[in-house]
């Protein structure tokens, strides 16, 4: 495998390769052979084999008759991130309240390159076009959660973020040119909230608001998601949106307060 560009003297290549192997598993290929993993990561087969067997011993990968697959323990890596931020503990009661008031699913996601990745969710048992869970990844631009975060970026950073290829494996229905994209994000910036109406996929309608830290920086987005055949745009804007904006403000205020608490308070 060629050397990675822009790495420092303390860069641990073996760790990077292990993470490459974990990331190689995608929704459309949950089980992969040794050869498939090696091809996906551009690693030599012996190196890939050692990494996979190490991950098997650590409990992050299991080996079966048809190949290798991730185990639920991989979720610990993402949960550790969410818990380290304190975001879930802060947001959960507010999300549960919003879910009860709207009878719709409520989610929080953060930008990761040109994608969003879901980090918290309170769901209602409804059938929707796309399955969403913690760790689900979608292209950011056609989602309400992505729009509220992209709209907060400086122009140069926005271009750099959107230039990165999506890793979601999903092609969205909305493919705007630069002018349409910029006009949409200007509107989101002016309103302070975003809506998507079947831009990501048929049947998916949602409205989102930004979540901010104590400095006012946007750190995530929160949305209410519904099925387009069940909930009209008017219902989303007139009923769900005011509740969402209040919850977003409450979570942001709590998140800001959390940031002012000395870390020693949490020491055991």
Automatic annotation (TrEMBL):
InterPro entries hit by this protein: GAF-like_dom_sf (IPR029016), HTH_MetabolicPath_Reg (IPR050707), Tscrpt_reg_IclR_C (IPR014757), Tscrpt_reg_IclR_N (IPR005471), WH-like_DNA-bd_sf (IPR036388), WH_DNA-bd_sf (IPR036390)
Gene3D superfamilies (UniProt xref): 3.30.450.40, Winged helix-like DNA-binding domain superfamily/Winged helix DNA-binding domain
Pfam families tied to this protein: HTH_IclR (PF09339), IclR_C (PF01614)
Entry superkingdom: Bacteria
Annotated ranges, domain IclR-ED: 73-257
Record carries keyword DNA-binding: yes
Annotated keywords: DNA-binding, Transcription, Transcription regulation
Keyword Translocase: no
Domain HTH iclR-type residue range list: 12-72
Descriptive protein name: IclR family transcriptional regulator
């Amino acid at each position: 495998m060629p050397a990675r560009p822009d790495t420092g003297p303390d860069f641990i290549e073996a760790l990077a390769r292990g993470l490459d192997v974990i990331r190689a598993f995608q929704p459309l290929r949950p089980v992969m052979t040794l050869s498939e993993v090696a091809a996906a990561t551009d690693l030599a087969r012996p190196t890939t084999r050692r990494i996979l067997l190490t991950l098997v011993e650590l409990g992050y990968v299991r080996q079966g008759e048809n190949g290798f697959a991730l185990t639920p323990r991989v979720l610990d890596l993402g949960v550790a991130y969410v818990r380290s931020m304190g975001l879930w503990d802060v947001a959960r009661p507010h999300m549960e309240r919003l879910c009860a008031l709207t009878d719709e699913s409520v989610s929080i996601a953060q930008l990761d390159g040109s994608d969003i990745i879901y980090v918290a969710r309170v769901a209602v048992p409804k059938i929707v076009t796309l399955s969403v869970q913690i760790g689900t990844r979608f292209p950011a631009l056609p989602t309400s959660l992505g729009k509220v975060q992209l709209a907060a970026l400086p122009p140069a950073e926005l271009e750099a973020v959107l230039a990165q290829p999506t890793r979601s494996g999903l092609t969205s229905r909305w493919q705007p040119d630069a002018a349409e994209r910029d006009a949409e994000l200007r509107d989101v910036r002016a309103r302070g909230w975003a809506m998507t109406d079947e831009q990501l996929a048929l049947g998916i309608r949602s409205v989102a608001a930004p979540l901010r830290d104590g400095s006012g920086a946007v750190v995530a987005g929160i949305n209410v998601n519904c099925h387009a055949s069940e909930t009209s745009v008017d219902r989303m804007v007139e009923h769900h949106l005011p509740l969402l904006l209040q919850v977003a403000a409450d979570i942001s205020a709590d998140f800001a307060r959390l940031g002012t608490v000395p870390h020693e308070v949490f020491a055991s």
